[in-house]
């Protein structure tokens, strides 16, 4: 049985996506896109290209879909310090209304250079037939994951029976899970389109709209030096 619907992409730019729990200035990147970021990319592309007329239904389908990420064989993380514009807090503005909207500041940022392909695997046992058909239509329209500028190029999609060890998997209390451990976010089981829509005031609620999953990422530290860490799936 072909259980998994797998889309393959080639990274064509540096990747960066900090944890949802990180502060604005401590921008350590994750090693992989998160299920939340991937599902948001599919939702965004479906809306932009008019592939769905019912975003609420699409959000419900995506919330119930199990998604695993196939990481490239190599990932090299480099760090840098950037000048940023930071919004002034409301309390400071109330004390001094002459303050400008933003102030200059600095922040640490990390970027990942991938060698290999990124694969997005949806478990068809958790996808409705309507969602499966919509994913096939939408996947070619996705051109970035994570931050804008983390560009990818669609290579194709296919179904397969099983996933190999290059895909992420939830730890579920398994302390022997190999690779790096990270907390990746995903859609909550009761997430609504209003909570995901940037143009509404509906807050995103922890566990309800966004949940966090302890995940094993099948990469290990292969080499490191001043300003970089090289992760690899196996010996190059």
Structure notes:
The chain contains 5 helices and 12 strands. The chain has 236 residues and is of the alpha+beta class. A 5-stranded mixed beta sheet has the order 2-5-4-12-11, with no helix packed on it. A 4-stranded antiparallel beta sheet has the order 3-6-1-7, with no helix packed on it. It has a 3-stranded antiparallel beta sheet with strand order 8-10-9. Strand 11 (220-225) and strand 12 form a beta hairpin. The radius of gyration is 19 Å and the shape is globular. It starts with a strand and ends with a strand.
- Poorly predicted regions are none
**Would you tell me which CATH topology applies?**
Alpha-Beta Plaits
Output the helix-strand order.
EEHHEEHEEHEEEHEEE
Number of helices: 5
The tally of beta strands, per DSSP, is 12
Shape-level CATH architecture? 2-Layer Sandwich
Q: Indicate the percent of residues in helices.
A: 10-25%
The span between the termini is 33 Å
Q: Biggest sheet: strands, sense, closure? A: 5 strands, mixed
Query: What's the arrangement of strands in the largest beta sheet?
Result: 2-5-4-12-11
CATH class: Alpha Beta
Category from helices, strands and their pairing: alpha+beta
Number of domains: 1
**Strand coverage percent:** 35-45%
Q: What is Rg? A: 19 Å
**What spatial form do the alpha-carbon principal axes imply?**
globular
Mean of all residue-level pLDDT scores: 90
